[in-house]
Amino acid sequence: MLVTALLVALHTSQTAAPPEILTEGLAIRGVVRSGRIPFPTDAIQLQLAEGKWSTPKAGDEVELASGSKQSWTSFKADANGAINQGPFQGGYALFNVVRAQPEIVILEASGHGVALINGVPRAGDPYGNGYLKLPIQLETGANTLLFGAGRGNLNVRLVRPSVPASFNMADLTVPDLVVGQGGEMLAGIIVMNATASEMSGLSVQTRVAGGAKVTTEVPPIPPLGVYKVPVKLKVDAPTAEGTAEATFALVGPSGMLEFQRVPLRVRSVKQTRKVTFLSAIDGSVQYYGLNPAQTPGIGKSLILSPHGAGVEGIGQADAYSGKDWAHLAAPTNRRPFGFDWEDWGEEDAIEVLKHAQTTLATDPAKTYLTGHSMGGHGTWHLGVTYPNLFAAIGPSAGWVSFFSYAGSPRSAPTNPVEEIFYRAMNGSDTLAQKKNYLNQEVYILHGDADDNVPVREARTMKEQLTQIGAKFGYHEQPGAGHWWDGDAAPGADCVDWPPMMKLFQDSALKKPADALSVSFCTFDPARSGQYLWARIDSQNIPYGLSSVELARQPGRIVGKTVNVRRLIVGPEAIDRSGRVFIAELDGQSVSAPLPTDPKDGLAYEMVDDAWICAGPAGTTDAPKRRHQFKSAFRNGAWLVYGTSGTPEENAWSLAKARFDAEQFGYRGNGAFRVMSDAAFLATLDDPSQTRDRNVVLYGNSETNRTFSRLLKEAPVQVRSGKLTVGEKEQKGVGLGCLFVYPRPDSKFAMVGVVAGTGLQGMAATNRLPYFVSGVQYPDWCVFDTKVYASGLSGVIGAGYFDDDWVVRLRQSAWRDRP
Predict the structure, then answer these.
(1) Using an 8 Å Cβ cutoff, are 139 and 131 in contact?
(2) 780-784 sheet: strands from edge to edge
(3) Quick one: average pLDDT of 114-128?
């Protein structure tokens, strides 16, 4: 039997009502095939997207694309209200909740991948963290609450809010204080809007240890939305270790809505601590764990240490002993599971590296990288991607790549569309870039009895490095499991291993002026294109492997390139003893006058299969525009929903933008702002607003007014009933589309688009996992609801734009529609 909860209207008392725990419902299993794939198959989502969903009863069957069928069955929770995943593994749990009149409640659920409230998607808590709280709307009569399977047990509670806006105190980001150090610090606190209208006029007031009060204005929060507000703290220098009380007050136009007290740790200057900073990715407050050098001074070494799955950054920092010669910074990957140190996890690590180098005044040439488990993979990945940053790396119990360990084995594409998607994932291919390890010292550490990350991962890398002639240290600890400590030194030996630390102390980055040769490769020049005095600036085949092998000789450089369209040779490699400089590239000789500015290098471009010199150029130009759709969710992006469509289209647009913000908030401790097209357009007339931020648009050119302002010249156009890419036209109301394109009023910002030609096409985008690490999408792709039945093989078209983003397409592939 389905649980039926018939409750009266929300009472006006401020007394908290007991939560309603959902314990009985229906379950169906085996209807979803997911993982690190861009288009999971999902028989229930297919029904929802095509408008064929109806509330089932026990025994009803769902037919899968394979022809097999699955049935809905009844379930009950255990005595603690927990629901075992077994009955709906790879599927959904369904509850029916009845109300006598409309009501807004706070959904507190854990252990689920997604929640669908009367078909409206809301973020899930697949890791069972228990800190996700979302306002939801219940309508008069029966309400269908669907929960996609996650990990562990499912728990669902509905809680009546006592005020229209409140804090979620379960997911704070706060700093530690330090004895003798005061000033301004940052914290992040979630504010929930438990109303059906956009809420503005809120502020957060903070005070630390009775000091000065600081007021932070809260931007407008969408209906039923949440936003993690970056707030300032004014700190008077503490005089002793212990705790200091911080207060957070949420204030609305009519007065105070909530008041909370939070203890902050006070640490000595030599103790590990949390350091907060403002992220450029989304404007959120993040933290990293710092294990400071035990003696003062500038020019110390810096060790960057990515943590393992389920571990906090501060816990990673605590695993090491304090060192006189080095600071250790442990970034968070945005969450304990986060992004496997790829995607936004990779960017978090680089942000922390730069923040720590600047604030601690470390020596950039003495920067090292080491992490454990998932952080060991992060070490392999970050090390091979950024050899310019790390003098030595030390992966411990690290897995090599998604393809060797984390459930995404590579196979050959079977058609041109698949080939474009497979190439989009190339940046995760550690082994394809292995020659970059020749540019840094490497120490591999693993327990030979590891039952979590098999020791074969370390042995694979040992074999691969041996094949390319690399010199490296290697140690397998006999009988050791995944985490081990043999007391060889202070700190946990599986991360704080003395021979590895000795290697770090003896290593330093090469100086570009001292390098006689460059051997370097990359899949993404906009992300990581430079090593020493050479920069790969552009590719012929997007996300194919680009590489250079270059050597300096008197008056010239000589070498070979692969998949390089534009190359910059830095000033350190240019011999200025003559009148001209010669580049012999791929057997072609190109002479050019010396740059007049000694700080300039020379740019070379491939034109009609011949190299030419394009003139002087710096090796560090302005930020490059990033290809691939996911690049839009960076650079402080605002998520903009449309308001000029039908009521149903407008409702979808708001719900999808809010859902994306919630997903990134959960997976990435993020804070993307959600706003209407009208609100965004108003900023374009405000000279105080920057144009150099990314924007993600939801809808199409008829439902979202921002399209005509930002995408008028884009080669992809989506309107009701029709979609065009270049000269290719597709018709129908069921087409969905993702693409990314330059923002025309900025030199480097991007516009991302989540679009549909009608409600079905819009709904086809609802469950695409673009916030899952390792899942990638090219610059543009077109699909319809059938992808929920056939996956990637059902994508209609995909491709990349040229580097100048003109109407012609660099590469495209189409499949005939049935």
Answers:
(1) no
(2) 673-676, 638-641, 695-699, 750-756, 735-742, 780-784, 797-801, 809-814
(3) 97
Give Cα 536 to chain centroid, integer Å: 25
Per-residue confidence band for 413, with pLDDT thresholds at 50, 70 and 90: confident
Q: Is the pLDDT of residue 15 over 70?
A: no
Res 810: pLDDT = 64
CA pair distance 762, 703, nearest whole angstrom: 11
Give the distance from CA 589 to its chain's centroid.
43
For residue 807, what pLDDT is reported? 43
Closest CA to 437 of 398, 396, 503, 382: 382
Distance of CA 609 to CAs 534, 542, 571, Å? Answer: 20, 17, 25
The CA distance from 500 to 813, in Å, is 48
Residue 718 backbone dihedrals phi, psi, to 5 degrees: -125, 125
Q: How far apart are CA 192 and CA 278, in angstroms?
A: 21
**Residue 640 near residue 704, CB atoms below 8 Å:** yes
Q: How many residues does the chain have?
A: 818
Q: Do the beta carbons of residue 119 and residue 45 sit within 8 Å?
A: no
Q: What is the mean pLDDT of the segment spanning 366-385?
A: 98
At residue 818 the predicted structure's pLDDT band, cuts being 50, 70 and 90, is: low
In the chain, the largest separation of any two C-alpha atoms, in whole Å, equals 89
Q: Give how far the C-alpha of residue 377 lies from the chain's centroid of Cα atoms, to the nearest Å.
A: 16
- Rounded Cα distance between 330 and 303, Å, is 8
Amino acid type, 763: A
The residues that bridge with 134 in the sheet, in sequence order, are 107
Query: Is the separation of the CB atoms in 250 and 202 below 8 Å?
Result: yes
- Cα–Cα distance, 810 to 420 (Å, whole number): 12
The Cα 292–Cα 297 span in angstroms is 11
Q: Chain-centre distance of CA 40, in angstroms?
A: 19
pLDDT, residue 802, reads 85
Beta strands 226-235 and 73-76 are unpaired
Average pLDDT of the residues in 148-168: 95
Contact 306, 378 (CB under 8 A): yes
Which of 108, 120, 111 has its CA nearest to residue 145?
120
Instruction: Give the pLDDT confidence of 55-96 residue by residue, as tens digits.
Output: 999 999 999 988 899 999 999 999 888 999 889 999 999 999
- Nearest Cα neighbor of 210 from 259, 247, 178 is 247
- CA distance linking residue 423 with residue 109, whole number of Å: 37
Mean residue pLDDT across the chain = 94
| Helix H or strand E encompassing 762 | helix 759-763
791-802 burial by CB neighbour count: b if 16+ within 10 A, else e?
A: bbebbbbbbbbe
The pairing of beta strand 242-252 with beta strand 165-173: unpaired
User: Angle CA(411)–CA(415)–CA(416) in degrees, nearest 5?
Assistant: 110
Nearest to 482 by CA among 491, 493, 473: 493
- For residue 696, which amino acid is it? V
